Amino acid sequence: MSLQQVVAPRSSSNGFGRRRVEREMGTRLDSKPQSGKPNTISFTNAGALNGGEVGGSESLSRDRLIYLTTCLIGHRVEVQVKNGTIFSGIFHATGAEKDFGVILKMARLIKDGSFRGQKSLFDSTSKPPSKTLIIPAKELVQIIAKGVPLSGDGLANGLQLEKRQDIMIDTLISQSHYVEVERELERWTPDEDDPQLPELENIFDGTWNRNWDQFETNEALFGVKSTFDEELYTTKLEKGPQMRDLEKEASRIAREIEGEETQDLHLAEERGFSFHEDFDIDEETRFSSVFRGLDDSGYEESEEMTFGSRNTEGFGGSSGSVISRSFSDVARGKSNDGAQVSSSSSSMDDTQSSQSNASKDLYRSSSSDHTKQLTSDSVSKSLSALNGESRLSENQFRERHGGKGYPTESAEWKTLLVGEEAHTSKSEDLQSSVNMKKAVSDKGGLSSSATAFAPSSVSSKGHENTILGESSDSTGSGKLSGATQAVNSRGRPGSSTSSTSECVGAPSASAGLGLSPSSSMGSLSSEKSSLNPNAKEFKLNPNAKSFTPSQTTLRPPSPVSEGSFYFPANMSAVPHMHGVPVGIGIAPSFGHQPVIYNPQATPMQAPQAYVQPNGPLYGQQMILGHPRQVLYMPNYPPEMPYKGREF
Amino acid sequence: MAMDASYGDEFAVGCFISIKTALGDEFEGQIISFDRLSNMLVLQEGSKTGPRRNIRLLQANYIKEFTILGQAEDPLDLKKCYLDLASLQAREEAAIRQAEMEAERIGVGVTSDAQRIFDALSKTLPVHWDKTVIMVMSEVRVCSPYLPENVTGGTPAANDRVKKVVMHIDTRI
After folding, report:
1. Minimal Cβ distance to B37: which of A92, A97, A153
2. How far is CA B124 from CA A170, A176, B168, in A?
3. What tens-digit pLDDT sequence spans chain B (173 residues)?
4. CA dist list (Å): A82 to A36, A73, B23, B26
5. pTM (2 decimals)?
6. Three-state secondary structure along A185-238?
7. Does A149 touch chain B (CB under 8 A)?
8. Closest CA to B148 of B166, B130, B161
9. Which residues from B are below 8 Å from A100, CB to CB?
10. Which position among A142, A157, A206, A362 has the lowest Cβ density within 10 Å, counted as fewest Cβ atoms?
């Protein structure tokens, strides 16, 4: 139906002519519905010819009519015709200008106005709806439509609702098409005649004293015998002479507990304490919402837990145990610089602890991993892997050295890492990188390597956490006694620049991670997936220098199965994460070309000691091409316990 | 009332009017529009509750008598009146599809009793019409008069199930 039909004005004589035409068309339609051939075209055309605007006001009214009828398109309407019959159908079109006929789609006869139809419709058989029903203007009496969106926004809303109705078959079945708009909610107020808490006291008081036994009633009415026996469901109560005393004791304890003062809003409500804070808390908070307190300590715990466990698992069971221990070992003396330290340390450990194979594999896998995917994922993974490795090696290292004076492995991570490495308890070493570096230097001869490793690392604390540089690694390893293997392993990471760095980062990250949860370390050593209660907390070393690997030819990583390498991502966020995203300056092109990280002289202000293996999941921010060598730090809120995440 | 007169003077937009039609309907509403040319009076019924209204288009010729109840302002906010033809067409198509789906469920030439039984069965079983026979799960047939004994066909299990449902249609607990 054309909305804008400007037609020449007509005189009444023409009007008569029009009527005649329409009457002819009207005759085609019987009073009974039928799937008529759509006469739309001719009808409309006739209408178009005949329609016309007579005057300004009439054009306005005509416009309104056209607008309103257009609003009806697609809407279910009821149309009454001259003989009283009512049809229900989907509004499709109206006649053009002057004469107002209607076309319905899928129309059904609702009420038969003819004489024949007066008897009950129940006996009559149903008929299929007509695909198209044309009602000429002459027959039309009225059109009734309910819930028509008239204004623009209503139209939009309506369409949305219609769309939803298409899918929500359930509501269609149970409800009418009219969807209630949201209503203004009012607070409930009791009526005047409502007694306060009527009969509540009576109802629930002394339920065991009431004269009505439900079981009796049930049995009497329905013959249902109750077979309930309390002792089937709970421990049998020994009703002995001590019963009374025990009961007294129990109620005393209960009273004690219930009378306790509490900060919890809901508990206070239950116990009847008026909450001593201001009463401005809204009802929802008072009675409904769940109280979520930020428990930092708990969080750290969990973090450490997950971290520890993850590392353990991630290690592919190669080390399986004493991950934390090994880690500390690694940190201690593995002579790795900082982050890289972790990796390097692990490598060192390997060499030293003749676990080179394991570590090598780890490195290989990590490097290969890295090559495969230069993403934070791999980084983190490698890191975790390396961490595990380093830990393992550390363990072995420790063992080798007969646990020389290493206090509770977990005990002092920082000291271990720092001190061990550099024989100086530099607490700041906690940053994995730093510690690692210390360890490297510790190794003697490694200091140079350490230096090489991390331009900023080595003895200087507060170096930025850097990714292990392959070169440094290799150098370091070379210097290490029996570090041949280490070299190899180091070189491995270096082979793939990104991977290397990632490897480096990983260990450092892991080192950092391991460091922070001292408890986790301890537990790690003792059990596979529990925290080390003795592990010292990791403290970020703001002075840790970042590690800059130098470019070296790197061996292509040998293929390693992914499974052996990846840790399940159970690492929780580092509790000490300052929330500063530290990006690894990893160039987007990964391949096998070594990536050179320009070490920054200025130490990172908020260096993050470790790389979150699960970084990608947490939206780690990769700062590409960042000139500074920073440790990749996933940016996620500290409250996010990273538990049970699997890669 | 004169059948051809233009009631434009009386049918001012915004008027509250009470009407009795020649067919016996009585209602009240507010005039949204009156088109003299086609003699169509558009009324808005009920209280104005948001954008959705109940509309009645009445051919003024069939007005038997009317009373002006009062005068108010234009119920249509002209500033908000705009149309989206595409969405209207989409709505129509959706409605037609919906109606077709519903039409499938209605048997042709069956009694309303049969239809009732069909509807009850369709709540839990997949049913469709085959002329005047209810087909359940495409294998069990229920013919007129749609009693449990009229359930035939299908595997014994399916048959029993349909029998039970038919039995309980009217004695639902």
Report:
1. A97
2. 13, 21, 12
3. 444 444 555 678 888 899 999 988 899 988 888 888 888 888 888 776 677 788 899 988 888 998 888 888 887 777 777 888 888 888 888 888 888 888 888 877 778 888 888 888 888 888 888 888 888 888 888 887 888 888 888 888 888 888 888 887 776 53
4. 18, 22, 8, 16
5. 0.37
6. CCCCCCCCCCCCCCCHHHHHCCCCCCCCCHHHHHHHHHCCCCCCCHHHCCCCCC
7. yes
8. B166
9. 35, 38-40, 57, 59
10. A206
What distance in Å separates the CA atoms of residue A214 and residue A217, rounded to the nearest whole number?
Answer: 5
A contact test, residue of B32, B37, B89, B112 with most A CBs within 10 A? B37
Structure tokens that stand for B145 in this block = 């008069």
Nearest CA in chain B to A72: B88
Does residue A178 belong to the interface with chain B, where contact is any CB pair within 8 Å?
A: yes
Q: Is B97 on the interface with A (CB under 8 A)?
A: yes
From A70, A73, A98, residue closest to B38, measured CB to CB: A98
d(CA B119, CA B107): 10
Within 10 angstroms of residue B86's Cβ, the number of other Cβ atoms is 9
B130 φψ region: left (φ > 0), alpha (ψ -120 to 50), beta (else): beta
Tell me if A90 and B83 make a contact (CB, 8 A cut-off): no
- Please, what's the largest Cα pairwise distance for chain A? 119
ipTM score assigned to the predicted complex: 0.81
**Which value, in Å, is the radius of gyration of the alpha carbons in chain A?**
41
Peptide bond between residue B145 and the one before it cis (omega within 30 degrees of 0): yes
**Alpha helix (H) residue ranges in A516-584:** 518-526, 562-565
C-alpha to C-alpha distances, A435 to A365, A420, A465, nearest whole angstrom: 24, 8, 10
Q: Are B78 and A60 in contact (CB under 8 A)?
A: no
Instruction: Find the length of chain A.
Output: 647
Q: Say if residues A304 and A519 touch (Cβ distance below 8 Å).
A: yes
Closest CA to A131 of B99, B69, B42: B99
Residue A422, amino acid: A
Peptide bond before residue A559 is cis, with ω within 30 degrees of 0: no
Contacts of A172 in chain B (CB under 8 A): 98
Who among A90, A121, A140 is closest to B95 (CB)?
A90
Beta sheet of B63-71, edge-to-edge order: A130-135, A102-111, A86-94, A76-81, A140-149, B52-59, B40-49, B26-35, B15-21, B63-71
Nearest CA in chain B to A84: B23
Structural tokens at position B138: 């495409």
Residues 97-116 of A with CB under 8 A from B: 97-100, 105-106, 113
